[in-house]
Specification:
Complex1_LYR_LYRM2, LYR motif-containing protein 2, transit peptide, 2 helices, mainly alpha, elongated, mitochondrion
Length: 77
């Protein structure tokens, strides 16, 4: 089953599991400054990806809305 066809709650669980696994792995880094750097990096990457995904979904939704509006306008004419 492709990831894009999974229910949202399962995708969310997969992302949370990945996030936890990354942080568990980072815990094993012995150097404190590397440890902190990697934790900050992981948090920022997840935040950036989340924001990018939201922007992409809004753009895609707006494009689909415009197509629907065009289709409805054609159907009325």
């Amino acid at each position: 089953m492709a990831t894009s066809h999974l229910p949202p709650f399962i995708r969310r669980q997969q992302v949370l599991l990945l996030y936890r696994r990354i942080f568990q792995t980072i815990q094993q880094v012995p150097n404190d400054s590397d440890h902190k750097y990697l934790k900050d990096w992981a948090r920022e990457e997840f935040k950036r990806i989340q924001e990018d995904t939201i922007r992409m979904m809004i753009t895609q939704g707006n494009m689909q809305l415009k197509e629907l509006e065009k289709t409805l306008a054609l159907a009325k004419s």
